[in-house]
Amino acid sequence: MNDEDSFEAVQYIPVLKTDFIMKSTLSKELCDALIKLSEQKIETGIVDNLEGVRRTGWNLQKDSDVAPYLQMVTAKVEHCISTRLNYPHFHKNRPSSMRSNGMQFVIAMYNAWVGFYKGNSFVHPHCHEEPPNFYSIAAYLSTGSGDTSLSFMTDESPSHGVNRPKVICKQGDLVIFPSSLYHYTNDTSDERIVLSGNYYAGYMPQINIGER
After folding, report:
1. Of 9, 38, 99, 177, which is least surrounded by CB within 10 A?
2. Residue 63: what pLDDT?
3. Which residue, 139, 141, 147, 132, is CA-closest to 201?
4. What residues pair up with 24 in beta bridges, in sequence order?
5. Domains and CATH numbers, the chain
6. Contacts of 195 by beta carbon, 8 Å cutoff, 6+ apart
7. From CA 21, how far away is CA 177, in angstroms rounded?
C-alpha cells in the first residue's frame, strides 16, 4: 500500500451554509463619474454570459483613468468584508488577536468591468470563482427610473432551484457576495448600468520583506 491509497478514505460531510450577501451604498457622484469614464472604455467582441449588453473590458482596475475611482469602491468593500470576517463582533473591525498572532487583512481587486444594459438584456445564471476567500460585487451605477434586482441560487438542493433570494437594488447600491454563489438577472432596463468585479479578501501571515 502506498501513500496515495490513503486518500481514498477522505469523506466530505456537508455542513450548514453560512454565506452572507452584504449590501452597502456608493455616492451618486462616484456612480456618475464611473459611468462617464466607462462609456469611453466600451469594447466589442467579448465572450461572456451577458445578452444584449454593451460593456467594457475585464480589467478596468488597470486603467489609469478609472483606477482611482475603483479604489474608493474597494475602500467600501474592505470595510464590509473585514467586518463580516469578524462576525458576530461587529464593534471590532480588525481583531487585535489576529494582528498579535502575525496575521494581516489583505484585499485585492483582480478584475472589474461595467455593463450597459437594455430592456431585453439578460444575465445567465453563473458564479465567478470557486476557491474560498473570493468575493464578487455588483454596484448599481444606474437603475433608470425604477428598481432592479439580483437573484441568487442557493446550493441547498442539487438543482440549485430552492430558495432563490432576490435582492432589490436601486442606484448607488453595492451588493457584495461570495464568488461561489450562483446568480442571475432577468429584469433589466435601458438605463441599468452595473459595475461588476472580483476580489480576494482575507487574513494571511504578515511577511516582513527585507528582514533577516
Report:
1. 9
2. 98
3. 132
4. 174
5. 19-205 (2.60.120.620)
6. 34, 38, 73, 112, 113, 114, 137, 138, 139, 141
7. 5
pLDDT in tens, 41-69: 999 999 888 888 999 999 999 999 999 99
**What is each CA distance from 90 to 22, 80, 93, 113, in whole angstroms?**
13, 10, 7, 31
Structure-model confidence comparison of residues 148 and 153, the more confident one: 148
Is the pLDDT at 23 greater than 90? The verdict is: yes
pLDDT tens figures, 156-207: 544 555 567 889 999 999 999 999 888 998 888 889 999 999 999 988 898 7
Q: What would you measure as the largest C-alpha separation in the chain, in angstroms? A: 68
pTM of the predicted protein model: 0.85
